[in-house]
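Structure tokens
________________
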Amino acid sequence: LVQGNTVSAMGTFKGLKQLRKIVIDAMNNIHPIYNIKALMIKRELAKDPTLATESWDRFLPDFKKKNVQRKKPKVKKEKKEYTPFPPQQPQSKLDMQLESGEYFLSTEEKDAKMKAKR
């Protein structure tokens, strides 16, 4: 029975020791299936009398940690100060010509002014 961080179990002392290891690993974010799989393999190896005296390390699975990429938290943009009036629009070329008086010049005067600039 598991509720929050509390676990209750019944069984033999050896079984409770195995369970304790599984539960502690589960709380440390290691999935219980890894330990359960190793326990199942150990049970099968214990039945074989020729392997009873040997080391079982070669039969037990060696699970490697995978470095899984995590999603980066979204960066919140700072809100700009609210202004009820929109910014002033930039002047167009026509407005600039009207302001400087260049718009009213004749084509010959415009060409002469352009040549003087070069």
Q: What stands out?
A: The two ends are 90 Å apart (CA to CA). The helical segments are 13-27, 32-47, 93-100, 107-117. The longest helix spans residues 32-47. The chain has a mean pLDDT of 86.
